[in-house]
Design brief:
Blueprint (H helix, E strand, L loop, with lengths): L13 H17 L2 H7 L30 H6 L18 E16 L5 E14 L8 H9 L5 E2 L1 H14 L5 E14 L6 E15 L2 E15 L1 H14 L7 E12 L9 H11 L10 H13 L4 H13 L4 E10 L8 E7 L21
Length: 368
């Protein structure tokens, strides 16, 4: 077949395109289907009357009655678990690969002996060796569902981690479960009560053969600036000028390693109580006038800078033998400034980091 090369800038009119189409059709009508596919499978579309194996007639109706048997399943391609030759990019070990925000209802034990069922967001990941293409993500979910009907504790999380670590033949693994935990809290003076919701995450990590358990808690409180409080009182005393100190909603993210001790289990409620002992100005749920006045008095009795908050939390955590290494990240979301005041206090080596997540502090905003 003679071919005429054209310059890339040459224009092609309709007649020329029609001639070229006819040449392609004539060639494809007499060519072997393999030759057609090698050049471009789309050429088969130019031959609507031809029965070419590389472009079969496809059904457009969903097959409700189709049930794949074992042989059919075995024939299905699995690129994610393919050979190392399919790896794109650097053939490097990946520390974590898995799923995030996989949600399901989970039951949790409470300190008073009852259970509560909460919507839980699960993150599950495993390590991936340099010579493996990928993992089957659905195995993580299937392994987790195998234990989801049980009342959850760290022991059951460990069983789920064992399952998917073995299924995926990985060295390291991690499970994190995030949920909003309800606890009934009494008002300061009126006798009313309401539910406070605490953002909590349980984390189980296996790294280099060692397993560790962590609890993360976001504690929301009010922080009154000591400097602003004194300046307001100065204006009242010296000039008879009414002034109010600034205070703001604040958040501390408390992350602790849970240590097994004869003294017993570290319950969610225990960690919340430790935070209340450190900084008692927790935001309120049910409030009447007497509660609002009491809250103002409580804030005035406990003014704190963000540095004070970190050290007060630290003081309480250090005294509990069920807690190992820990990290405190505090954010006072200023009503005086257009920026926030922040602090980080770390105990032990576990949470040490030279670099911080650029959006760490922005995740501490409490959404009511």
């Amino acid at each position: 077949m003679n071919q005429m090369k054209r310059k890339s800038g040459d224009a092609v009119d309709t007649a020329q395109a029609q001639d070229a189409l006819e040449v392609l059709r004539n060639w494809a009508a007499n060519a072997d289907p393999v030759e057609v596919a090698a050049l471009d499978p789309a050429i088969a579309r130019l031959l609507p009357s031809a029965d070419l194996p590389n472009y079969p007639e496809l059904s457009r109706t969903y097959p409700d009655d189709f049930a794949p048997d074992a042989d059919y399943k075995a024939s299905m391609p699995d690129l994610q678990n393919g050979p190392a030759s399919l790896i794109q990019g650097a053939k490097r070990h990946i520390q974590h690969v898995g799923i995030s925000n996989f949600r399901l209802p989970i039951r949790y034990h409470t300190r008073d002996g009852s259970d509560v069922t909460l919507e839980t967001s699960v993150t599950g990941s495993v390590s991936l060796e340099a010579g493996k293409k990928g993992i089957n993500m659905s195995r993580i979910m299937r392994s987790f569902y195998g234990h989801a009907e049980k009342t959850f504790s760290f022991d059951v999380i460990e069983a789920a981690l064992d399952d998917y670590k073995n299924d995926l033949e990985s060295l390291d693994a991690r499970i994190e479960m995030r949920f909003s935990y309800p606890a009934r809290v009494e008002s300061l003076r009126s006798g009313l009560s309401g539910y406070q919701y605490y953002d909590i995450a349980l984390e189980l990590v296996e790294h280099r053969g060692k397993r560790r358990k962590f609890i993360h808690l976001d504690y929301v409180y009010s922080s009154t600036c000591p400097c602003s409080l004194e300046l307001s009182e100065h204006a009242r005393q010296m000039r008879g000028q009414l002034a109010t100190p600034h205070s703001q909603r604040s958040v501390a993210r408390i992350s602790v390693e849970k240590i097994h001790q004869p003294s017993g289990t570290l319950w969610f409620e225990d960690l919340i109580d430790l935070c209340r002992l450190a900084v008692p100005t927790e935001t309120q749920v049910m409030v009447k006038r007497e509660d609002e006045q009491a809250f103002a008095e409580l804030n005035a009795a406990n003014p704190i800078f963000v540095e004070d908050a970190a050290r007060l939390f630290c003081e309480q955590l250090q005294q509990d033998d069920r807690i190992g290494d820990f990290r405190i990240v505090a954010s006072h979301q200023e009503s005086l400034h257009s920026h926030d005041a922040v602090s980080i206090l770390i105990e032990g080596d576990t949470f040490e980091a030279e670099s911080l997540d650029p959006k760490l502090f922005s995740t501490l905003f409490h959404v009511g």
